[in-house]
Amino acid sequence: MWVEYYQLPKNAGICCEHCGTYIRNVFTIHFDDGFSLKCGVECYNKLMKQSNISQYGEKLLKKKIKLLKLYDEMRSNWTRWNTPEEAESDGCFQRIEDPEKPGFWRIRTQSEFEEEKEFVLNDLIPYRINLVQSEIKEKFKRVTIPHE
After folding, report:
1. pLDDT tens digit string along 106-116?
2. How many Å apart are CA 99 and CA 75, to the nearest integer?
3. Do residues 48 and 58 lie in contact, with contact meaning Cβ atoms separated by under 8 Å?
4. Which end of the chain is more exposed for a tag (fewer CB within 10 A), N or C?
5. pLDDT tens, position by position, 40-63
6. Does 139 score more than 60 pLDDT?
7. What does the pLDDT look like over 92-108, one tens digit per residue?
8. Long-range contacts made by residues 26-35, C-beta under 8 angstroms, separation at least 24?
């Protein structure tokens, strides 16, 4: 078993496959038999309570899910930002040391920002998400959840 997490934008939610409720915070639980289930927070918590996961395992899984949420939020922010000034005003530090004046900091240029954005969206975030999902797969491969 392994878990994915992502948040959908407003007015773009889906129905929980477990209870039919409209959801935007989506947990996709992938089972070893190839079955996957997209559900919301409440159904996810109910299913975890029905599983054979230990209390320690549940806390560890919550930490991993929290990381997935963080990376999803990061991806959403970087997708939304178009200039280093937008990112900086939103709290994302865009200052770098000026190579021509060591010890002085300046805001990134547009081309530096776009290069950083490209790296973050196409390399860093996908790598980190895959890493967390691989850890979940490995650590929780013996967890069983009744899903039928």
Report:
1. 999 999 999 99
2. 28
3. yes
4. C
5. 999 998 888 888 888 888 889 889
6. yes
7. 999 988 888 888 999 99
8. 27/3, 27/65, 28/3, 28/4, 29/1, 29/2, 29/3, 29/145, 29/147, 30/1, 30/2, 30/3, 30/4, 31/1, 31/145, 31/147, 32/1, 32/141, 35/147, 35/148
| SS3 track for the chain | CEEEEEECCCCCCEECCCCCCEECEEEEEECCCCCEEEECHHHHHHHHHHCCCCHHHHHHHHHHHHHHHHHHHHHHHHHHCCCHHHHHHCCCCCEEECCCCCCCEEECCHHHHHHHHHHHHHHHHHHHHHHHHHHHHHHCCCCCCCCC
**What pLDDT score was predicted for residue 38?**
93
Is residue 90 over pLDDT 80? yes
pTM: 0.79
What residue spans define the domains of the chain?
A: 2-139
Please state, as a whole number, how many other Cβ atoms lie within 10 Å of the Cβ of residue 130.
10
